[in-house]
Design brief:
Layout: H1 7-14, E1 23-28, E2 33-35, E3 51-55, H2 65-69, E4 84-88, E5 90-93, E6 100-102, E7 105-113, E8 135-139, H3 155-161, E9 163-168, E10 177-179, E11 190-196, E12 200-201, E13 215-216, E14 232-233, E15 236-243, E16 259-261, E17 272-276, H4 281-290, H5 295-298, H6 313-316
Antiparallel strand pairs: 1-7, 2-3, 3-4, 4-17, 5-6, 5-16, 7-15, 8-17, 9-10, 9-11, 11-15, 12-13, 12-14
């Protein structure tokens, strides 16, 4: 991993909402596999674009909960979590040659957050673990611009607000900044991309035709209420990845922004994330209910939850997918993006 995620930037972005209740940080190493597979959007088929996939080793284009739970390892730190997490991959397009090169990153960090009025710390009845077979997505790979006035509060606007990033510039003498879509400058300390997952469930469907309608966002994204249509409150997931774009800075200085997501998005607005549940749900529910008391638990220290078996980083970093189903050139330099 080239650098540590910007915890300060994340915590600052979360400070404006209610109480920062119990949560834990789940570190995931470099990807389990990078390939054009997406068992939520394109089950049983080759996906249209490349994903960086983390989590349980049995990831495949025909994923179900049972084989997920039979994974022999995970590229994330908690042994009882054999879920999979994935996002598009970032590429640099050389403005001189037109060739694409994959951009390195510091791994995925998943924040599991107790949020919303239903959390016990806010006087609610408590959050629920994801049910077996549950999956969800956030974001839209076809999105290319910002459409809504911030604060409108509709589910469509909340979905847009759920994906926002920071151009990290500390140590360079330049001021970092938050943005929707891609920035316009070099980010000397990394391009920090973040997304919120929905945290409300309809209580019936494990998936839906658009892979979104069975879930909903909290009324303030990071806190607030679930809508009456989606009354079951869930632990909220928050993804963070920091990309080392500065390593390419000398090759595009004075030229337009040269980075593109693997879904052929040059704007940045089409970044998105997927989650496929592979938890031991008894362990997960116990963690939600009981790992919310000690200072370390309240500070997000995953090792402080006694229900978890935390795997050494040298072990989970070595986990790889049981099978690579789509074998093709992905690193570059290459004339076109995978797919």
């Amino acid at each position: 991993m080239f650098l540590k995620p910007s915890f300060a930037a994340i915590l600052a972005s979360l400070a404006s909402v209610e109480v920062a209740n119990a949560w834990f940080r789940l570190p995931c190493a470099t990807p389990l596999v990078q390939e054009r597979v997406d068992p939520i959007i394109s089950p049983g088929q080759v996906s249209q674009h490349l994903h960086s996939i983390h989590g349980g080793s049995n990831f495949s284009m025909n994923m179900t909960y049972t084989p997920a739970r039979q994974s022999t390892c995970s590229s994330c730190a908690v042994a009882q979590d054999l879920s999979n997490y994935w996002t598009p991959t970032l590429y640099f397009k050389d403005p001189t040659t037109g060739q694409f090169e994959k951009v390195p990153n510091g791994g995925l960090l998943v924040y599991y957050q107790n949020r919303g009025s239903a959390d016990v710390s806010n006087g609610g009845k408590g959050l629920k673990a994801f049910p077996a077979g549950f999956r969800m997505i956030t974001g839209d790979p076809k999105k290319r611009s910002k459409l809504y006035a911030e604060g409108l509060g509709t589910q469509a606007e909340l979905a847009e607000r759920a994906i926002k990033s920071t151009c990290l510039r500390y140590g360079s003498g330049n001021t970092g900044y938050d943005y929707y879509g891609f920035p316009t400058t070099d980010c000397e300390a990394g391009l920090n991309t973040r997304l919120h997952m929905p945290a409300c469930w309809d209580g019936v469907n494990l998936d839906s035709p658009d892979h979104k309608s069975h879930t909903a966002y909290l009324s303030m994204i990071d806190n607030g209420d679930c809508p009456s249509t989606h009354p079951v409150p869930l632990m909220k997931l928050f993804y963070e990845i920091t990309w080392d774009i500065s390593g390419f800075s000398s090759r595009w200085k004075g030229k337009p922004w040269p980075f593109v997501w693997s879904n052929s998005d040059p704007t940045g607005y089409g970044w998105h994330g997927d989650f496929f549940n592979g938890w031991d749900n008894t362990v997960f529910q116990n963690a939600i209910d009981h790992c919310n008391q000690t200072p370390d638990q309240l500070a997000g220290v995953v090792e402080a939850c006694p229900y978890f078996t935390v795997v050494p980083s040298t072990t989970f970093s070595a986990c790889r997918a049981k099978t690579t189903e789509v074998v093709e050139s992905i690193n570059g330099p290459m004339a076109k993006l995978p797919g």
